[in-house]
């Protein structure tokens, strides 16, 4: 189930925090960092407290003192203009230092993170003679016409064991990915880490319902993993059921409305025909329309909505509408 309303970014910030957990004391995480007073912000700013401290993670191997991170969810497009835009964000960030050149250009990096590889961008790089290296699986360093050291991280290609937190931020994960995520969560002991992990799990669970159903029916899942799994899964299943029920009720109510309206009109016309007069048919139509109005009111519709329904249904003019509402 693909849900365009899924809040991916909180899950991404949590995943990055967990990815870089070994260096957490050395880093400052600033999500949705505002570049100025206008609505212009980067998804995540990671600042090293001591720029000389190495980051113990492949994702952060490129990091320097100030690190701009842009995240694109599976539904978001990552094109060459976005690539340049994030580079421009980094330039703006440098220019907003407290004093002139207080943030050095060689102390800034740019990272773009996406589930699938942005093929068009890489074609552009090849055409314009950028240099691309892959120091780690799923991590691409881009060299050429860039102001700052830049990497593109393709989470789908990352090693499962090393980068499970980012890898599961996808709407196409495998059963093994979810199992590894649950195992990793079960080993967390700090409350703060568990809360971050729950944020990642919740996002991944929302968009991978098929995997959840598969795991739910797995008799081999341990009790410890079930304790983590079920509190996340049950609300999602209940929400699905509620949505389907509400959709079914709405459809049935619409059918009832249409059936009642048609029967009312039919009875009115038949009654008019029995009278054998043109006026009788007209009167029957009026009774049918009035019956429709009464039914719609009983169902809780407002007059303005009823006007729209019967005008469309019976082709009434504004003057004719005034007779009924």
Basic shape: extended
Strand content: 5-15%
Structural class: alpha/beta
Low-confidence stretches: none
Largest sheet data? 7 strands, mixed
Strand tally, please?
A: 7
Give the structure's gist in a few sentences.
With 325 residues, the protein is of the alpha/beta class. Helices cover 51% and strands 14% of the residues.
What does this protein look like?
With 325 residues, the chain is α/β, with parallel strands linked by helices. The chain contains eleven helices and seven strands. The chain has helices spanning 8-19, 80-95, 119-127, 164-167, 175-186, 191-206, 209-216, 223-275, 278-298, 303-314, 318-321, and strands at 27-34, 41-48, 66-72, 108-114, 131-136, 139-143, 150-154. It has a seven-stranded mixed β-sheet with strand order 1-2-3-4-7-6-5, sandwiched between helices. Helix 2 (80-95) links the parallel strand 3 and strand 4 (108-114). The radius of gyration is 30 Å and the shape is extended. It starts with 7 loop residues before the first helix and ends with a helix.
């Amino acid at each position: 189930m693909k849900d365009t309303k899924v809040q991916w970014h909180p899950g991404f910030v949590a995943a990055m925090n967990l990815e870089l957990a070994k260096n957490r004391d050395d880093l400052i995480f600033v999500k949705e960092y505002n570049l100025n007073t206008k609505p212009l912000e980067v998804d995540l700013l990671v600042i090293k407290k001591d720029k000389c401290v190495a980051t113990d993670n492949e994702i952060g191997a490129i990091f320097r003192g100030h690190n701009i991170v842009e995240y694109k969810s599976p539904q978001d497009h990552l094109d060459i203009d976005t690539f340049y835009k994030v580079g421009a964000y980094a330039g703006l960030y440098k220019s907003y230092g407290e004093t002139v050149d207080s943030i050095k250009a060689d102390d800034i990096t740019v990272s773009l993170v996406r589930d699938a590889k942005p093929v068009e961008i890489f074609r552009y790089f090849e055409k314009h003679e950028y240099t691309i290296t892959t120091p780690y699986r799923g991590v691409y360093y881009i060299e050429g016409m860039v102001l700052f050291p830049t990497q593109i991280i393709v989470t789908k290609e990352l090693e499962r064991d090393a980068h499970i937190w980012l890898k599961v931020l996808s709407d196409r994960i495998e059963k093994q990915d979810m199992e590894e995520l649950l195992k990793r969560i079960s080993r967390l002991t700090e409350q703060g880490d568990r809360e971050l992990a729950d944020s990642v799990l919740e996002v991944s669970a929302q968009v991978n319902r098929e995997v959840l159903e598969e795991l739910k029916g797995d008799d081999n899942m341990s009790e410890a993993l079930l304790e983590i799994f079920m509190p996340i899964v049950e609300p999602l299943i209940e929400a699905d059921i509620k949505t389907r029920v509400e959709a079914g009720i709405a459809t049935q109510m619409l059918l009832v409305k249409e059936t009642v309206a048609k029967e009312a009109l039919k009875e009115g016309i038949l009654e008019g025909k029995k009278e054998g007069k043109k006026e009788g048919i007209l009167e029957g139509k009026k009774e049918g329309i009035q019956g429709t109005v009464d039914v719609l009111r009983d169902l809780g519709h407002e007059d303005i909505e009823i006007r729209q329904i019967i005008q469309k249904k019976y082709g009434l003019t504004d003057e004719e509408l005034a007779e009924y509402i």
